[in-house]
Write a structure and sequence with these properties.
Blueprint lengths: L4 H13 L2 H15 L3 H6 L9 H8 L2 H8 L9 H13 L8 H8 L10 H10 L25 H7 L3 H16 L3 H6 L15 H7 L3 H15 L32 H12 L13
Pfam families: Ank_2
InterPro entries: Ankyrin_rpt, Ankyrin_rpt-contain_sf
Keywords: ANK repeat
């Protein structure tokens, strides 16, 4: 059920600038008044630009609000199947220009310092099933390769926005899963995402050259070399490590997989220092 025009401005401002407990409190009161669950308010599009609350939070880089809106408890009264469908839908829903939340995050470059719980990482991990509150099966559109209204993927928008770290995060996430032999991932993505072409027939590398962003082109080239490099030598068996729980309460969930920021940072540093023969260092556990 869409949020009424009367409540549009308040909810949009809370999603963009309000604290998560304030946002969820307002939605709870609204849902009680309408006799529905919070999830139905989250899923419904708003008036302006056909954006949902999830889009507003993504555009503003508010990860705390995204996690709160995505919390499974908001959807419990829908039933199991309907709740899963609803949580998939808010990740995949396009705004008025065809952008998903990941498109908006990539375009704005919402990635803070290494080690922080950042927006693009939240959306990527939610997409592959490590959603806050538990695992979730994949359904519908693939956030990595879905096009917006202009025919661009999230990676293309990150290149166009010159968001170098976002480019590295998206492309390396794909390569890392391929190098790890993730069969399900490779079935879903028959070609690497940095080779996916826009509606105009351009890859992310083509776009980087077209706009004169040499650093971005070189980063994509080095990530491509990493994909085609020989398998790493066997390393000593890692010692069991406790699961890493992110701060922020139950809304944040537990990461089932770590993104290797070191490789991305080393590649960017090598490009900026003029080291054209950069090869990622083998990771030693």
């Amino acid at each position: 059920m869409p949020i009424s025009p009367k409540d549009h401005t308040t909810c949009a401002l809370l999603a963009e600038k309000g604290q998560s407990h304030t946002l969820m409190g307002a939605l709870g009161r609204m849902a009680h008044k309408e006799g529905i669950c919070i999830g139905e308010l989250v899923v419904g599009p708003m008036v302006r630009f056909n954006m949902s609350l999830f889009h507003y939070a993504a555009l503003a880089g508010r990860v705390d609000n995204l996690a709160a809106l995505y919390e499974p408890a908001n959807y419990l009264s829908m039933g199991t199947h309907e709740a899963v469908e609803a949580r998939c839908r808010i990740l995949q829903a396009p705004d008025g220009e065809g952008n998903t939340a990941l498109h908006l995050a990539a375009r704005r470059g919402h990635i803070p310092a290494k080690g922080h719980f950042d927006l693009a990482r939240f959306l990527i991990m939610s997409d592959v099933g490590a959603a806050a509150g538990g695992s979730m099966p994949r359904k519908g559109a693939d956030l990595f390769i879905v096009e917006n209204g202009a025919g661009h993927t999230a990676l293309h928008l990150a290149v166009l926005g010159r968001k170098l770290t976002v480019v590295g995060l998206l492309a390396h996430t794909d390569v890392q899963r391929r190098r790890n032999g993730n069969a399900n991932w490779m079935i879903k993505h028959p070609i690497p995402i940095h080779e996916v072409r826009s509606r105009q027939g351009k890859t992310a590398g083509h776009i980087a050259l077209e706009i004169g962003h040499l650093e971005c082109f070189m980063l994509l080239d080095k990530i491509s070399r990493e994909l085609n490099a020989p398998p790493p030598q066997p390393q000593p068996q890692p010692q069991p490590q406790p699961q890493k729980v992110l701060s922020g309460g139950s809304n944040m969930g537990i990461w089932n997989e770590e993104i290797d920021y070191d490789i991305i940072e080393e590649a960017i540093a090598a490009i900026r220092n003029g080291v054209w023969t950069y090869v990622p260092k083998p990771k030693i556990f």
